[in-house]
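Hi everyone,

Forwarding the result from last night's run.
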Amino acid sequence: MAYDVIADDGAAAPLLASSANSGKPRWNMYAFACATLASMTTILMGYNLALMSGAQLFIRQDLGLSDAQIEVLAGSINVFMLMSILAAGWAADLLGRRGTLVLANVFLMAGALAMSLGNSYSALMAARCITSVGSGFSVVVTSVYNAEISPASMRGFLSSFLDMFISLGLLLSYVSNYAFAGLPVHLGWRIMYGVGVLPPVLLAVGVLAMPESPRWLAMRGRHADARAVLVHTSDTPAEADLRLEEIKQAVREPQVSDGDRGSNVWKELLMRPSASVRRILVCVVGVNFFQQASGIDALVLYSPLVFRKAGMSSDKAVLGATVAAGVVKMCFVLVATLFSDRLGRRPLLLASTAGVAVSMASLGVTLCVGGAASMAASVLSVLAFMAAFSIGFGPLAGTYSAEIIPLRLRAQGASLGTAVNRLTSALVSMTFISLADAITMPGCFFLYAGVGAAACAFVYARMPETKGRSLEDMDVLFAK
């Protein structure tokens, strides 16, 4: 078996000879099935996150909630998720990636049931808190698991499943909003949440059928089990042996006991990072911050308000336009899924961030103009934003973060990046209505357009290409 040598910084580093370098990834059905099962949990995260977009119209009427309460209820899940996100790395190292995903499904089921039965603002807030635990565990551990189970030739494709399934959850929530909008006010929104109770049970059973991450198995000294998984997720047994040796070397590097591993990981991440780890952290924190600060959750959660501002008056028309936005988002995530291993991460991220900036600026302009033509242009601008966001920023922020963090730091590092992501999302989602009152709604979108332009500059200046690199080779890439 042949290997390429990467010598960007003068040091040779092995790179698995795969079809990633030829631009056409090989197909590995075993890795595909594993990543699919793991990612399906995030459907429920997307569903519960975005269902509030349409459900708030009916919750407001049924329970008599104010604008401020709706704003906090919509965005609070991101604040509640911070605790579970930061704990997810510890749980994933202790229970395994698979065990943590099962636990995530338990919390998602309980949260959906609590939301459907809630009769007061405080009860709904408690239900959002329960849901947030499952959401935080699922989003962190799925990104880690998909990166670790994937061969280098398919890692971009399989890692982008995370956002693809979250987008599917968003779309299903919009369809649920539209489908149950005609029911009595006190019943429709409860059924919207109630349909999310059974799927987590089925998904938990499916997760138990998939193998544990080979890198977690190696961290526990279970090298034979790790090799068995790698044989199924590699192109040849020789490649599996090479990947196992690289993982074992990465596991040996910290030289710490299991009891001290967690605390030492956080020290190495935050207190005494090496130059390469510092560069990795800048990329992880930066891409997760910019992804949410560009305003995606303002449109995911408040698109009905945006469409009403543009001139739509009918609930059905507003929810129909929201469904269209979900369809566009889902379709363009597939573009990133299919091309991230062919074109690379950087080109897609650069095109995505530039598109986000332009479409947000366009939305701000059309909302300023007003009129029937402006209403159509506003809808098109929202659809353009969803398309631009979904070809890179949406699916590849998590993919890029999970693949560049060294194995010894990966679970906690992914938790840190996701915590920044959710905290920024909470800031956007819990301030949008108030910010629109202060600087007008078009002003909000001009602000988000500026963030998108800054994100494009950040990607260009700070984020190197990772296509085709093995996970254990990332230290070499960031050592320059």
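Strands lie at 3-6, 13-16.

Cheers,
N.
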